[in-house]
Design goal:
2 domains, Arc Repressor Mutant, subunit A, mainly alpha
Length: about 220
């Protein structure tokens, strides 16, 4: 009985491993094709040809194309957030943590497949505001990324002026998001000349300059009262 149960467990494990590999192959194929042809221009049959798997596998894992798109975006955003969050959570001074987090973001950005970067832009332009399932995934990614930047800036400037720190955190996170979106477009438009490390260096300079400007304004306002 024990031997039979052990063999059954091994068989189940092999099936699960095979299923996981099939799922990743489908996601890889969908990510590449949707980045090249858009969501509307990518059919389930094309994904099957690219992945070498039957349509039944696609529907088994994702139910439909909408579910597949959501899974593609969830996988890509999770990979990026895990790396960036780990850099922020490591010990260090607020300035060190901010610098480390931004530089890890540059590394992640450079390592991230261009297919995913293109896909996010294409789908953003192509899909309507009513696509709640997909949009929720992207909104959550940007919200978590913005929260990390806000936390880093607040911790950096809180010892100097907590009120200013809150303002810098909010404004700086918004600035970082806008510059990040522009950087994604530039990386796709001109990949040979785009330098993620230089972009992050300039972003950090801008965030610190913003902080110094708000501190100076606060000091001037206090002196006038």
């Amino acid at each position: 009985m024990l031997e039979r149960n052990t063999e059954e467990n091994r068989s189940t494990s092999r099936v699960q491993e095979q299923g996981a590999r099939s799922r990743e192959r489908i996601l890889d194929a969908a990510e590449t094709l949707m980045a090249d042809h858009g969501y509307a221009g990518t059919s389930i049959s094309a994904i099957c040809r690219e992945s070498g798997l039957p349509a039944s596998s696609v529907y088994w894992h994702f139910e439909n194309k909408e579910g597949l798109l959501k899974a593609v975006m969830e996988r890509g955003t999770a990979r990026m957030l895990d790396e960036i969050s780990a850099a922020y959570d490591a010990p260090g001074t607020p300035r060190e943590r901010l610098n480390r987090m931004l530089n890890r973001a540059a590394d992640v950005f450079e390592a991230q497949p261009r297919e995913f970067q293109r896909l996010e832009l294409i789908i953003t332009l192509e899909r309507s505001q009513s696509d709640d399932a997909w949009r929720a995934t992207i909104d959550e990614f940007h919200a978590r990324l913005q929260s990390l930047i806000e936390s880093a800036l607040f911790e950096l400037y809180r010892p100097m002026d907590e009120t200013v720190a809150r303002r810098v955190a909010t404004e700086g996170a918004r600035l970082a998001q806008m510059l990040g979106t522009g950087a994604t477009f530039e990386a796709i438009r001109n990949p040979d000349e785009f330098d993620p490390a230089a972009m992050i260096e300039h972003l950090e300079m801008a965030l610190l300059a913003l902080g110094e400007r708000r501190l100076a304004e606060s000091k001037e306002g206090s002196e006038e009262q």
